[in-house]
Structures are given as structure tokens and as C-alpha cells.
């Protein structure tokens, strides 16, 4: 690689090829702080053409490349394993004008979610994916992992927002799939191939994203439950209701943490909390009351009709991101479960953690309408992780779930891919990978062993 550094500097400029050891060390650690790797250089292209040229140089030099966006991966998806070149999309951050007629916007892969949301809001529209990491997560990375988030129950995952994209392929060529029509059935759905591929098939450089009308009326409630099964059953009945906008499970232990460390706790009592939100073009307050009528709650729900009250109710859910690290980097399990298995999983996971890491504190939350949940194990020392990770993956599989829901497989979960995919599935995926990246140099640590 040293002989190719000059070529890279010639492509992107000397100041955008960084070899400082401290910078590389900071860029080679996972967002959780638990997983570290090693890199030889950080390269920051300023255009799709520069990025494609960088890929050609690295491929010809036999150098592995790890792609980085906002580096919010929770499964070591951006951690280099082979003294890699770190290829950052951070300079590809332009956000175009909103097409109000077609309700879409073009954004560079390095644009952060908050910038896209802001542009949509200014045009009277809404972007369908929302995450707590909105200020750092990039839309390119979100597409690469097919991220979901707080609005998935209404709008779907990231893949359902992508109507076109530009990709730098491993051979250094650029592919653009762009159509102005709302429904395009001409040939292969190539954007779908790269959404969720975790950067193993190419580097997304820009995206055409779908936008949605903004509902004029919104009502939010936080409800307390003593029994998780009752909460899940309520969530199952709510998720298919017209106008559903959010359906979030919050562990009562998580709410206690926000009370202790942030100064605000749950507005209602309960071992488990459900945040439910309806949004439509007419008042939803009476409809929400009808939905909650007869549901076995721990007292009256807290309801927010105006924006300020709704924001206060959302604080308990969104504040979790600020308290999960108070005991050090948590051990994270991002899982997808059948709704019928959630209560059993929560119980068995708590038992497993109690036996394998008795000093740890499990905290469960997530998007209960889809069964996409985030189990965070707080106060879990690194030596306990080895005893806990594989049994937890096995428990997820035995509960009928997938080992990943929204954050991808990354590096951390690649040994467990066969718990969620049949051998023929994995073989087909490898065939596609080999066809596009025959030398396997691109994101080589991700997805496959």
C-alpha cells in the first residue's frame, strides 16, 4: 500500500489521505467501544468519481477497504481487520432540493439523517425513517444496513424509502439507477441489491429518497403495563390500525435510568411501557381512547395532544441513547422476533444474563410493532461477553428470531449468520459477492466468515 499512497493523494488531495496513527486508532474502534481493528490510511473522497478511482487503486494494490459513514454501527460493521484503507463518505454530504411534485430528494451518502429530515420539513414533507442517532447516522450507511427506527411501523425500513441510487462498484465503475417515474418495473431492481448489503457489493455514493405528506394532527400516549404479554398483544392490535405512527416498547428499568441520570422518568407506572402515536389529517384523540379502552393498563395513560406535551412523552424513549453508556460500553443485541415470542425471550434472556453475568443489568426496548428489539446488557465486563454472546444468539434462534434486525450482521454477528439463513441462501449471497467483488477486498470483514 505505501507505494499507492501517492496515487490516492493524486485523486483526493494530500489533506484527504490521513496516516496519522492517533486518527487511525480513533477511526478503527466500533461505536460501542468494544471492538477495535487496524487501518493503514483514511481516505476521504470529495465526489463519486474520486471514490470510484480510489476503489480502483486499492483493488489493483490488493488492499482491503472498509467503508465508513457516520460510524454508528453497533456490530463492528466499520472496524477494519486487515490493515485496511478506511474509505469515508463524509464529504459526500450534499442534500439537493426537494421535488415537491414527486415527493423525493437526492442526498449524498454522507449526508446525516437530520439534514435530510430538515430539508423535508422545510418543504412541508416528512422523511419516513427516524433514529435517535439522527445527527450522526448517514443515509448511505442507513441504506447499507436497511435501517428501521422509530417510524418503521408506518413507513417501513430504509429500503422502502430508496427510489434510486448511485453506487461505486468494486471494479471502480459507477452505476446510477435513477428514474423520475414513481413505479419503475424495467429490469432488475438493482437498488434493492445494495440496500442491506452492508457495503460488501459496492459503495453507495448518492440516493434518491422518497418523502411523505406530513399529517396535520398527531396524538401521543405512554401506557404502563405490569405484564409484557399484555403489552405485546396491545401492540399487535395497534400496529395495523390506519394512522399508526409509532409503537415503541420501553423497559421500566430503562425509564428508571432516565429518571436517575437525566432527571425525567416515566410519566406512568409500570414494569413495561408502550409509547403509541397516531397521526392523520384529522384529530385522533377519540380514536386513541377507543383503542386503549379495555386494555389492561397500570392506571391511566399519559396523553400528549400538543407538540410540547408530545415531546415530553418522547423524552423517555429518546433519552435512552444518553443513559445506556453510564456504566461503560453496553453489550448490545439487535434482534428481530415473532411477536408471540417476545415475552418468552425477555424472560429467558434475563435468566441467561443472571446466570452468565450476574452483575449485569438487562434493558430491553425497541419497535414492538415489527418485533425489532434492542437488548442492552449494562455493566457487562468484556470477559463476560465471551460467555454470553453465543448462548444469546442461540436463544434468539430458538425463539424463532433473526440474529439481526436493523443494524446489520457486521463483523460481530457473522459467525451466526447460518442461524438466520439457510445454506442455499448463504451460498447464493456468496455467489453475488464473488461476481461483483471477485477478489473480496471490499468490506471483507463484514457478513461472511
Automatic annotation (TrEMBL):
GO terms for molecular function: FAD binding; oxidoreductase activity. It holds the Pfam family FAD_binding_4. InterPro entries: FAD-bd_oxidored_4_C (IPR004113), FAD-bd_PCMH (IPR016166), FAD-bd_PCMH-like_sf (IPR036318), FAD-bd_PCMH_sub1 (IPR016167), FAD-bd_PCMH_sub2 (IPR016169), FAD-linked_Oxase-like_C (IPR016164), FAD-oxidored/transferase_4 (IPR051264), Oxid_FAD_bind_N (IPR006094). Residues 35-214 form the FAD-binding PCMH-type domain. PROSITE patterns: FAD_PCMH. Its cofactor is FAD. Keywords: FAD, Flavoprotein, Oxidoreductase. GO terms for biological process: respiratory electron transport chain. Coiled coil: none annotated. Belongs to the FAD-binding oxidoreductase/transferase type 4 family. This is FAD/FMN-containing dehydrogenase. It comes from Mycobacterium terramassiliense. The lineage of its organism: Bacteria, Bacillati, Actinomycetota, Actinomycetes, Mycobacteriales.
